[in-house]
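Hallway conversation turned thread

IA: we were arguing at lunch whether anyone had actually written out IclR family transcriptional regulator end to end. Turns out nobody had. So, for the record, here is the sequence (291 residues) and right after it the structure tokens. Reply here if something looks off.
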Amino acid sequence: MDDDTTARAGHRLEPADITDTRTKVSMEDAHAPAVAPGWKAPGEKSDQTTVQAVDRAITLIETLAESRQELRLQDIARMTGLKVSTCHHLLNTLLRRGYVAKHDKPRAYFLGPRLAEIASMRGARFDIVREARPFLDRLAEDTGSTVRLAAFEGTELNILYETDASGIRSLGEAAHATALGKAILAWLPEPEIARVVADHGLSPLTRNTIVSLGELVESLRQVRRHGFAIEDREFRDDEVAIGCVIREKAGAVVGAVGASLQAGSADTARLQDLQLAVSTCAREISARSRT
């Protein structure tokens, strides 16, 4: 075990601990355009055949979909060029219909589950395992890590593919203790997070496992801020991992990619390299869903 790994004994790593300035800019700023693409500034002539309220609502949805973090009301107004009051009214409507969800602390918005529900109704459904497998195998080869693909079925977190094994395994009571689970939980509405916790609890799998709802909420806030989840000896004593979500065409989260290493070999520099590799892999798989 090297000095860097020893130094963190007794401290559970969070995304901020391995995020340098360059990574933070890449994860946050590069995916938050100042103005949503295609948006007409106030006063600019619009197509007479469009309905303004619908056009604006779609713009809000696209803005949230293109952001890798939850957005405050003021951020949405700035990025779309709309008045704060207009955004507020539209967001309330989208909230009621399930297209947008909101966290109260901090008060910020992100895509709701309705888009994923509609996407799942399509006949030609995005086959996440088939599309992801080549990218997952390459990630495992490039990083020397064990790579997994996971998704929720109801409140159950299932592994859909693993480079070192085969078949589907349930992580059941471990969503709160894995990078895969935390990556997805971070983008779920609070009632759905509460349902997962109610069904499976917050079991202490290791000394580092999160066992309180307050700790979990704070950890998920860091995931949303930095764009990835980190698992630091929370599921297994000898394992660390990085997880990033996969988004389908409409922008809804449909799963997560995770890569794990032996804790003794995972110093800060290697974790940073792994985070960049996992993030790239997740983006590539997400891009496949949009073709």
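OS: looked through it. Residues 57 and 89 are 10 Å apart (CA to CA).
IA: good, adding that to the notes. The chain has two domains: 3-28+124-288, 33-112.
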